[in-house]
Structure formats: structure tokens, C-alpha cells
User: Fold this.
Amino acid sequence: MSRKRALRGVLTLVVLLVVGYFFARGLAENWSAVREIEIQVNGWSVGAVVLFSAAVVVSGLLWGHMLGRLNHSRITRTDAIRVQCLSWLLKYVPGQVGSVANKVVWVGDRGISRTLVVITFVYENVFLLLGSIVPTGVILLVSRATPGGSGDLVTTLLPAIAALVPLLLVMDRRIFRGGVNLVARRALRRDVPDEYFLRPLDALGYQLAFLVPRVLNGIGFVFIVASFLDVSSSAYLPLAAAYVLAGAVGILAVFVPSGLGVRESVIVLFASHYMPIEQAIVLSLLARLYSTVGDAVLALLYGALKLRDVSEGRQS
Assistant:
């Protein structure tokens, strides 16, 4: 176990150093131009923070609804939001380990299978990733929103394209259940109940519903653009798609906490098609800043809900 942790730490450090080097070099080369860009907090930037936070809340409500449906029980909205907020804040632990562990610990003595919680966590992330890759890839291909056209886009999308195969396999109920049972038979000495898996129409419904958080993220990013840049309204859709796709690529960089640096690099690549490179760099940094402020809002929301539960003597 110590060797695995050491290897993971080394890989994380290597990725961070490589991405950080190229990003810092780009920033240094354009530093004089960056300094001339005026940044101000206004209604657009505040709206972006609200939308980033709302996206997490909506995904939490959808996850809670899915868990309750498969468990044939009711997960309150408060519980779903509170658990989701903390899991989201734990995204800075590489590999989503902290996020899933929080949900497994939360289930505690509630009579809900921990295996089911893990399965719904997988479903949630698959829906979010597919919603981040497929529609955005189509939008960017149509708009050819890269300096080198579709060739550059395909190269950038390679990690996401490679991830599509296992993601789509999860959407097949029989294949997903078979894969889970291979693990369950070894770890639990039994198969996982069939009712723990979504039927095709239910999976499709949740997939469409999980597009909502991604739409909110995309609109939030456009708000950041509008807060300090004057770009053509025709650029809004591909810019929103680029941000959502960048988030997915950051998630797929499992060794990097919250896709640090990876997301910014992808944003700069796509955004530079619609604005000077120095503005694209500032935009990527502002997106990270405002999303971090959104995380702070979620932390406050989690704290408020936790305090309410404690004051009411509820299990949380």
C-alpha cells in the first residue's frame, strides 16, 4: 500500500510540474499584456459564482433522487445537498477517493447498502462525464473552435475519447452489473442485487437530467467572459462547451487534485481562438478563482445545513 501511495504521489507531482511549467511559461511570455487587462467584480462575476454553486446543488439533488429510487426509500433534499457539498469539497483529494468515501461514510446506519452508494456514485460521474464530453465535442467540432481546426480538437479530445468506451459500457445494465459482480463475488462473496442498476430508460432520463449542471457551468463561464471581455455573442456557445469539456479533461487527470492546471490549459487552447492569448490566460485563471469562490459558498451552505441538523438533533 505504501508503494502505491508513493507512486501516486510521484505521478501527481510530475503531472503538476509539467502542466505548471507550460502554463507558467505561457503566462510569463504574455505577462506585460496580462497586466494591462482590467479585472473587476460585477454582477456577471457574482452570477457566475452563483451558477457554479447551483450546479453542484442540482447534481446533489439528482444523485439523492437516484439513490432513493434504487433503494426504494426517500432521501431528503437537505441530506442530498449536504452530502454532495462535502463530497464536492473533497474533490481536491486525487482520484475522487474523498468524494466517494464521504458518501459511503454518510450512509452509516441508514439501512442503505454501501455497495449501492458506490454504484450511484459511479452512475453520477458517468452521467456528468458523458454530458461533458459528447455534446461539447459536437459543438466544438461544428464550430471548429481550435487554432488547427478539427485535427487539433481530436488530439485534445484523445483522453476524453478513450474514456468514452468504459463510460458507455456502464450505461449497459448487463455489462455494468457483470463487472460489479466480478468484484462483489471476490470481496463480498455474493452477487449484487439486480435492482441496484438502472433500467435503460431510467438511465437515459438521468443522463438528460445531469446535463442541467453542465449547462449551468457553461453559462457561468460565459458570465465570466462577459464580466471583463467584449467578444461576439456567437462565441458564447463554443466557449461554454470548451469550459465544460476542460472540466471533464481535468477530472480524467486522476492524479491531479481537481484537475489543477490541466483545466486551465485546455481553456486557453480553445479560448485563444476567440480572443488574444493573454486574455485567454486571464480568463482561465478567473474561472479557477470564481469556481474556488463557489466552493467557499458551498462550504458555507454545508456548514449551515450541518448546524441545523445538530440543533435539531438529527443524524447527519
User: Anything to note?
Assistant: Residues 146-150 have pLDDT under 50 and may be disordered. Residues 267 and 284 are 6 Å apart (CA to CA). The chain has one domain: 40-311. The longest helix spans residues 277-311.
